[in-house]
Amino acid sequence: DAKTTQPPSMDCAEGRAANLPCNHSTISGNEYVYWYRQIHSQGPQYIIHGLKNNETNEMASLIITEDRKSSTLILPHATLRDTAVYYCIAGYAGNNRKLIWGLGTSLAVNP
Amino acid sequence: GAGVSQSPRYKVAKRGQDVALRCDPISGHVSLFWYQQALGQGPEFLTYFQNEAQLDKSGLPSDRFFAERPEGSVSTLKIQRTQQEDSAVYLCASSLSPGVRTEAFFGQGTRLTVV
């Protein structure tokens, strides 16, 4: 599976959009980009995933560049409850067992 | 229940002791995964079940680690002769089906501390 790189930490003001970048320059054509987050002392929570088209759900939007070498997770109106570690993972669909998790980005949403 | 349930939430074991960690996946979920998460790190894959079949155990760090899911629902991760390096959070996750929906639902984890 492709490795991903993310900034170790980011800050965001409450109510503003949080844009979390991820580089996955070695992603292969049929690997998806998954985003999970982990709030302190809890298990990871699925956010969104995509292959090459931009995706949106009730939690977030995922913007994938045309060359698929990078993506951005957008939380449109960050709240204090969005403070968490956000993981960007590249892997094959249906192959959760082989998802390789990096260190993620620790997002702090400030009042 | 509504989500993945793991027990116990916390476990302290003396070095050399055997431990068993339990996972109750979401009802009807075919796939079940175990991960190990060291402090400050992302989760690392341990093993995968599809129903009762253990299809992948390539992530188990040693033969002291053993997992089972005999009836295709509840799973147990057993660690024999625990060592200090086994101290971590053990996460269980389930998903509906490997090929239909790809998101995994995680439990809160069991924090194992070996002293």
Notable traits:
heterodimer; A: 111 residues; mainly beta; four-stranded antiparallel beta sheet; B: 115 residues; 0% helix; 48% strand
Characterization of the model:
The complex is a heterodimer of chains A (111) and B (115). Chain A has 111 residues and is an all-beta fold. Helices cover 0% and strands 47% of the residues of chain A. Chain A contains no helices and nine strands. Chain A has strands spanning 9-13, 18-23, 31-38, 45-50, 55-56, 61-64, 70-75, 84-92, 105-110. Chain B is built from no helices and eleven strands. In chain B, the strands form two sheets. In chain B, strands 2, 4, 5, 6, 9, 10 and 11 form a seven-stranded mixed β-sheet that branches. The interface between A and B is medium-sized, with 22 and 28 residues.
| Overall pLDDT score of chain A | 92
How many angstroms does the end-to-end distance of chain A come to? 37 Å
Helical coverage of chain A, percent range:
under 10%
Main sheet of chain A, how many strands, which sense, barrel?
A: 5 strands, mixed
Brief account:
The complex is a heterodimer of chains A (111) and B (115). Chain A contains no helices and nine strands.
List the topology elements.
The complex is a heterodimer of chains A (111) and B (115).
Chain A: E1 9-13, E2 18-23, E3 31-38, E4 45-50, E5 55-56, E6 61-64, E7 70-75, E8 84-92, E9 105-110
Parallel strand pairs in A: 1-9
Antiparallel strand pairs in A: 2-7, 3-4, 3-8, 5-6, 6-7, 8-9
Chain B: E1 5-7, E2 10-13, E3 19-24, E4 31-37, E5 44-50, E6 53-56, E7 65-68, E8 75-79, E9 88-95, E10 105-106, E11 110-114
Parallel strand pairs in B: 2-11
Antiparallel strand pairs in B: 1-3, 3-8, 4-5, 4-9, 5-6, 7-8, 9-10, 9-11
